[in-house]
Design brief:
It comes from Suillus placidus. By secondary structure, the chain is mostly helical. About 45% of the residues lie in helices and about 10% in strands. It is globular and about 85 Å long.
């Protein structure tokens, strides 16, 4: 093979974009279902091209399956260059070596495939590179590259709960069958403890991936817009901030800007100066107008979910930016929260597996957010389709927790929305007592129970959640919390309290509670209706089913 074939093809396609737009190309790689579809398509094509003997104990090209597994593990254990320039040089070197090895004959097919696979690991748009490989790499070697890729993706999907959540959190995710509200059962992921706990003991603590203040507190100067702490002294007010955010410390200001604030609510570039595209007067005005429209929408709706979604997308962009840069370029900024004991998983990997409710955001909501993304990083908006945005909103709505201090506040304005349309969060003292909303990856797996085994509290005065056992728990016991206020208030009968909390659950999470307390307090002969309308994404169902 002519050594320049693959390199020249790649160079003409995308090397220019590796440096300037690596961040959202990599975002596409991690979020685009087309990548997985392409893998399934290529896997089927590879299988059809194999002989019967090849489809047994050997991988494509006659390579033993154990050798293929060893090759994958070897590549996984290798360090990947940190910065975009280093990645580009590494990419070119591996492609060149792969083409040289191809010319040495079948004995070198696996080493050649390993080189091409190394290059694929650092390329910002893998689907694009797979298409190029198919046209330029010898078929036996291309088949091996696809086998390595399929094996890697399979391990990532099947091995996720081996790494998540971190063992230091003393919990694990298990699959159980629960009533589906239609007389049958459905499969559901739940959280269980991995050691014994006494009542009152802290099971774990968890920082939010994203958190937002309630609309009536935003910009008032009473609470930090990042950690949600109540501010005792003069707040820090940035000179340029479309949302009028305030902070309790310079560290909170720095972290918030790096994670999401810069991209969403300022005119500063979300990328380092070396990677940032130039912004002329017209583009600057377009970005300013887009942010104004988004802020006006947030003020109008007074809901947390749209802002949580925006901040989640922005934080993932921030994490991918940090991933693409050499160490030290963004000092003091964590690339993303540590949510696994190893394994290469992104924020989207965690969000993708969670349950959600099907919702229909206003068309205007999707458009104003897409405009903010497009004017900040042209091209990023194409990844927020209406369907994906609706799914993101459904996941934030279903999984978010209310942040409250002590017994909760008593001055939250009443919402003008109809009760069935009012936003709900998992708050054991009631959504009306919260000061803000947080999205937590691990705590999202906790199910509701009207006699809960644990309670989320916020004793640090910030959005950091601590989960405290409310009763003795033995290793393997499921953790449950109360999504709503389940107490019986003064003047309420047992039946009234039961009816009220169950109505809140139906309105906020669309399921009829089947816990023991509800059953014991129910009226004899009462017919329970209402199925659990939460669901998981189809891609997750297919992956776990296979």
């Amino acid at each position: 093979m002519n050594r320049s074939t693959t390199i020249l093809t790649v160079t003409s396609v995308a090397v220019g974009g590796i440096l300037a737009y690596a961040v959202y190309f990599d975002y596409k790689r991690r979020t685009d279902a087309n990548f997985r579809k392409q893998l399934r398509k290529e896997k089927k094509r590879v299988k059809q091209s194999q002989t019967p003997s090849e489809s047994g104990q050997t991988a494509s090209g006659g390579v033993d399956a154990n050798d293929l597994r060893s090759a994958l593990e070897s590549v996984r254990n290798e360090e990947v260059p940190p910065g975009p320039e280093e990645k580009e040089q590494y990419f070119m070197k591996q492609v060149g070596m792969g083409e040289q090895l191809c010319a040495q004959g079948p004995v070198y097919h696996l080493p050649a495939a390993m080189c091409f696979y190394r290059a694929l690991r650092v390329y910002p748009s893998p689907v694009e590179l797979i298409v190029i490989y198919e046209k330029t790499v010898p078929p036996p070697v291309f088949q091996l590259v696809m086998e390595l890729t399929n094996l890697d993706v399979k391990d990532r999907v099947e091995g996720y709960y081996t790494f998540f959540p971190p063992k230091a959190m003393n919990v694990a995710v298990e699959t159980v069958n629960v009533p589906d509200g239609k007389g049958g059962t459905m499969s559901k992921k739940v959280l269980v403890v991995t050691k014994d706990f006494k009542a009152g003991e802290v099971i774990y603590q968890e920082d939010p991936i994203v958190a937002v203040l309630d609309a009536d507190l935003q910009g008032k100067g009473t609470h930090c817009s990042y950690c949600l702490r109540q501010i005792q002294n003069d707040p820090i007010r940035p000179e340029s901030d479309r949302l009028h955010s305030v902070y309790c410390s310079s560290n909170c200001l720095t972290q918030h800007k790096a994670h999401s604030q810069t991209l969403l609510f300022t005119l500063e570039s979300p990328l380092p100066a070396a990677m940032a595209p130039e912004m002329g007067g017209t583009l600057r005005e377009e970005r300013e107008n887009a942010q104004k429209a988004f802020v006006e929408y947030l003020i109008q709706t007074k809901k947390a979910a749209p802002e949580l979604v925006a901040r989640f997308v922005a934080r993932q962009v921030s994490a991918e930016t940090a991933r693409m840069l050499p160490p030290g370029i963004l000092p003091g900024i964590a690339s993303e929260p540590v949510l696994t004991d190893g394994g290469e998983y992104s924020l989207y990997d965690h969000l993708e597996r969670l349950r959600y409710l099907e919702v229909n955001p206003a068309e205007h909501e999707t458009r104003v957010l897409k405009d903010v993304l497009q004017t900040a990083l042209p091209g990023l908006e194409q990844f927020l389709t209406e369907d994906r945005h609706a799914t993101f909103v459904g996941k934030m709505s279903y999984n978010s927790y209310g942040v409250y201090f002590g017994e909760g506040r008593k001055d939250k304005p009443e919402t003008a929305a109809r009760p069935e349309n009012a936003e709900k969060t998992r708050t054991p003292c009631g959504t009306s007592k919260q000061i803000g909303t947080g999205f937590y990856a691990v705590s999202s797996y906790i199910s509701h129970n009207c006699a809960p085994s644990a309670k989320p509290v916020f004793p640090t005065g910030t959005a950091q959640l601590q989960l405290v056992a409310t009763c003795a728990l033995q290793k393997g016991d499921e953790i449950t919390v109360a999504y709503v206020d389940v107490s019986q208030h003064s003047g309420e009968t047992v039946e009234e309290a039961r009816r009220h909390r169950r109505m809140e659950l139906v309105r906020g999470w669309r399921f009829a509670c089947s816990c023991k307390r509800c059953a014991d307090e129910g009226v004899e002969g009462e017919i329970e209706e209402g199925r659990d309308e939460s669901r998981v994404e189809d891609v997750v169902t297919r992956a776990e089913g296979s």
